[in-house]
Each structure stands twice: as structure tokens, then as C-alpha cells.
Amino acid sequence: MRIRRSLTIKQMATVSGVALVTICIFIVIQLFHFVQQRREDYAQQLQNIAMSVRLPLSSAVLKGDVPQAERILNTLKPVGILSRADVVLPDDFQVLHADFPPERPVPALIARLFRLPVEISVPLYALPRPSHPRALASLVLQADSYRLYQFIASAFSTMMSTYLLLALVLTVSITWCINRLMVHPLREIARELEMLSPQDAPRHQLSLPDMHRDDELGVLVRSYNRNQQVLAGMLEDLNRLSTRHAETALPNKNLFTAMLDSRMALRKDPQQYCLLVISIGTLQEASGVLTEAQRGILLMTLTRQLKRHLNDHRFLGQLNHNEFAVFDHCIQNAFEGMQLAQGILKSINAPLTIGSLSLRPAASIGIALRQRSEESAHQLLRRATSAMMLAHDNGKNQILFFEPKLTAMVHRRMTLESTILEGIEQERCALFFQPQVDIRNRQLIGAEVLLRWRQDDGSYSLPSDFISGAEEIGAMVPLGNWVLEASCRVLAQWRERGAQLQLAVNLSAKQLQESNLVPFLKVLLARYQIGPAQLVLEITETARITEFEHSLDLLRQLRELGILIALDDFGMGYSSLYYLDRLRKLPIDLLKIDRSFIEKLPEDLVMLRIVSAIAEVLSLPVIAEGVETQAQLQCLLQHKINWGQGYLFSEPLPQGDFEQRFLHLAAV
């Protein structure tokens, strides 16, 4: 009711405002018109008065009879509208005037707006002549402005009171009409919509007022009803699509979960049941390769393959565009669940031909078995999905059962990302430096940057799975960028102290996949004014070789900047000639022999000889990691490997300790 009353008040205020503005404009126009008429009347009266005394006054002026002229002017004093009567010579010099009472003042604004006072000038002539009478002087008469001001004030107050009353009448009348013709029908429509229940809303139709069938309100109601009909049809289609997949007509995730919950509620006995979540990676990979029609054929073909494994105690659902789920409530043990998963995987892996394309689809399957009777459908589906995701991470065509430790692993990975990002902000990350030396003369040639994490007790270490965990959760890029910038900052500090050293920084495969790595390094080199040859980026050979192939262009861009590239863990990757041929094409400047080969020296020299020979063929310098004994050092020298790093020279050191022990050995 408050809203309705405020609407009426707003209507009346609007109508009153419009009426008031209109009336004010009308009053001003009419007032100027009346005043102009009154000015013309005054001017005419003044003209008549002047003509009545013109001849005798002209005669008196001609004769020089001043007393007579003054008497004539004084005869005009009883005329009520006059406030001035003067005789003025042609040069505007006043020679005679009547003594009128002082004129009452008129507001300056009124005088300026209405051009007050009203004044006329009548020439006085000499004896009449047939042609060109000469004017001796002029009679100037001025009307009393205060009388005209009183007229203006009286007219304005009269019109204002009259028209304000008229505005009030118009406001009430117009407001009543608006309320009767518009507000009341709209109020009925609003009340009808307000009382509408959510269940009836999609199919509701407004009733059309009788008086408004052909006006805008009728158009509004008919448009609303038409839109409601369209909406009802769309909701019916949406309701159908919300429970079934549009292409396969399989139950979607919502319907499948409801079916799963219902079926699990019926199985109160201790009998086992099993849920499989199947991710067909080929469906996702085909999105950018196949046409929409080809992808539809692939989807329907795989759906038919899955349906072949259904029976009376199994049902199938489609969780999203490339994930399916199969529930079996009669599985007796894990072995039967594995048999079902293997049969499904075999069907999916069967070769397919779509047009001119030959495909062998791949999938990842996660299995969750019943753990307790009070388990919900969402919990079972979540466990099976977790197993499927882990199977996908392990490679193609993998089948894994859910294990309780998976939950802890997922939680740890979820918290690891925030821990890493918070650690960067809280400066828990630190750089340690291990010197790299020329083992022939113990000359310092550079250092490798090693990441360390400050523990709660103040010590620095790095858990063995820290880097792999950061890569899995996607936190390696911000962490690696922090290491790069911190390393550049250290190089700038050393340059200021006159030391020129090379710093080797490990670059993860995730960073190599980032398109903004090169621009980021350009910014760092410019910001800290570092020579690009001072920065050595180490890439790991044990990463998947396809990642190197996809990153060749980026590595070439880094080389063009002048940054050196080192291949870390050399010898730990694949050893086929095909691999070595691809290795030859990599834009690298340095090889690093993995510590696992060095620790076998001097007893086992085979791998050292092989790696040394490969490096010689590729014409690349080699640095050995993990040098700890003099015997290892002598073996390296015998095989022309002149650079090394390891505990024989120094353990990784904090920045301050490294600078104190080694910075004076750097080139100046």
C-alpha cells in the first residue's frame, strides 16, 4: 500500500509540476502583454495632454513669457498620471519644469523588464508657417511609474491566484483520470502477479481489462501472455533436456545421480555394488579436429559400444560431453569390477573409421566399490571420478580403483597451491647457490640456483615431491617466475659489486609451455640491466620429448635473446638413435651429466664414455653434477670433461655465504 500511495503522490507531484511551469510561462507572457497595452494607453493619454497645452505653451515660449509658461505647466499637476512636465530646448537643456511631488520608487528589476518610465516628447513650434515650421523647444511628459508598478503587481497577484486555483483543479482532474484509467488497472495486474505462486508462474496468463483491449495496456497484456506461452514451451524443452543428454538421450549427471541414489537406497543388504566413471579422451581431443557431424558419429558409435555391456542390473549415464558412468548393483568383488572395466575399455579401443579418418579411441576408467551402507550417490560418484582423474594422469587406457589415500592426496594437492603462493608472498622461498668450477684449475665459472623452502624451525630444505607437486597443481609457473626474477636481482647486485658470473636456473616443462615466457624474460633483462649470456636456463632431458618439440620455437627465441640453454640430467632420457637425432636439433649450449652416472665413478666408466662421445659429436661443452671425490674428478679430466659442480667444491649455500666464499673469485 505504501508503494501504491507513493505512486499516486508522484503522479500528482508530476502533474502539478508540469501545470505550474506551464501556468508560470503563461502568466509571464500575458503579464507582458497587459503591461504593453497599459504602456500604450499611458503614452496616448500623455499625447492628448501634450496636445491640449501645446499651442498656448508654444505661444508663451515664443513670447518669452516665462510666468505664463510656468502657469500652463502647473495646470498639468492635477493630472494624476503625470510625474514630470518639462520644457526642453533642442540641445536637451531644461528651461522650464513643473514642481511635481517626488515619484515613489519602483524596483529596478521591474523598471528594467517593463521599460519604465513611460515618456513622450512633443515639439513646440513658432507661428504656423505653410512649410517647415521651426521647433523652438520640446514638451517632455513622463507618466507616474509607480501607478504602472501597482498595476503590474495587482495583475500578477490576480493571475497567479486564479491560475494556481486552475492548476489545482487540473491536477486533481488529471490525476483522477490517470488513476482511473491507468493506475487502477496496473494495480490489479500487479496484485495478480504478486499473488502468483512459483508453480503457476511459467504458464500464467493475465486477464485483459475490458476498457483497454485496443490501447497500450492491452498490447502490454497480450505481449506478456504471448511471452508466457513461449516461455512455457521453452521450459518444457528445457525440462526434457535437463535430464537427458541432447545427442545420446542418456541420463545426464543430475538424472543419473538421482537414479543412483534411488538404486543404492534399495540395496540395504551387504551385497557389493560398483560404479565406473569413464573418460573418453578422444572425444575431447576430436573437438578441434573433426567436424560437428563427424564428432556426432563418433559419439553415437562409442555410445553404442557402451550400451553393449548393459544388462538388467546395470544402467548407463553421460556426465558431460566426454565422460560416462556405468553402475552395476550385482558386482560381487573387485575382480568382477575389473573385468567389466576391461571389457568396456576393449570395446572403446576398437578401431573406428569415420569418413577418411581411422581412429583408435582411448579412455581412462575409475572404479569405486561400495564401502559402507550409508554412503550417498554423490560420495560414490566423487570417489569414482577421483580414481578416473588419477588414471588419466597416469596415461592413456588406464584403469584404477579408488583408494582412501586418494582423498588425502587430493586435499594435499589442493592446499599445496595456496601454500606455495602464500610462501612467495611471505618470503618463505629462498635461493641457494652451488658453485660451478673449472676442475682443471678450480676457477669459478658460475653457479646453479637451487630453490629452498624455509621450514617452521627456521631451517631451509625442499621436500622431494615439492617440484612435482607444484607442476601437477599448476603452481610451477608463478614459482618459476619468482625464481627467475630473484636470480636476475642477484645478478644485478653482483654486477654492482664488480662480479660477472653465470647463473644456471632450472626451467620446468610447464614454463616452456607458457607463451609469455620470452616477454617476461625480456622485461627482467631490461629491468635489471643484465647481459643475457649471464643467464643459463636448464631444461630437463627426462621430461617428455614431445614437450621439447612443442617448445622448439620458444627455445630458439631464447637463444636469439642471447640466453644460454643447458640440457640437464643428460643421459637419463631415451637412448635411441631417433631420440639422439631429435636431440641434435635442440638449440642448446651446454650438457649436464646426471649425478647418477658420476657416483659410479671410477668403477663404471661406460656411461661416462658414451655421454662424453655424444657431447663431442654434438660439439657441446659438458658439466658434471654431483662430483664428490678426487677419483671422480680425475676420471672426468681423463675424458675431457672440464667443468663440474658438487660437494667436492661446495654444498649449496645461502646467498651471503656464497658471496663471502666465492664472489671474490669471479671475473671482474
TrEMBL record:
InterPro entries found in the cross-reference section: Cyclic-di-GMP_PDE-like, EAL_dom, EAL_sf, GAPES3, GGDEF_dom, HAMP_dom, Nucleotide_cyclase, Rev_trsase/Diguanyl_cyclase
Gene Ontology CC terms, in alphabetical order: membrane
SUPFAM superfamilies to which the protein is assigned, alphabetical: EAL domain-like, Nucleotide cyclase
Residue ranges of every copy of the EAL domain listed in the record: 413-666
CDD domains: EAL
Domain HAMP span(s) in chain numbering: 180-236
GO molecular function terms listed in the Swiss-Prot or TrEMBL record: cyclic-guanylate-specific phosphodiesterase activity
The keyword Cytoplasm is assigned to this record: no
Domain GGDEF positions: 271-404
Coiled-coil intervals, chain numbering: none
PANTHER family given in the database record: CYCLIC DI-GMP PHOSPHODIESTERASE PDEF (PTHR33121), CYCLIC DI-GMP PHOSPHODIESTERASE PDEK-RELATED (PTHR33121:SF77)
NCBIfam families assigned to the protein according to its UniProt record, in alphabetical order: PRK11829.1 (NF008807)
Protein name: Biofilm formation regulator HmsP
Species annotation: Acerihabitans arboris
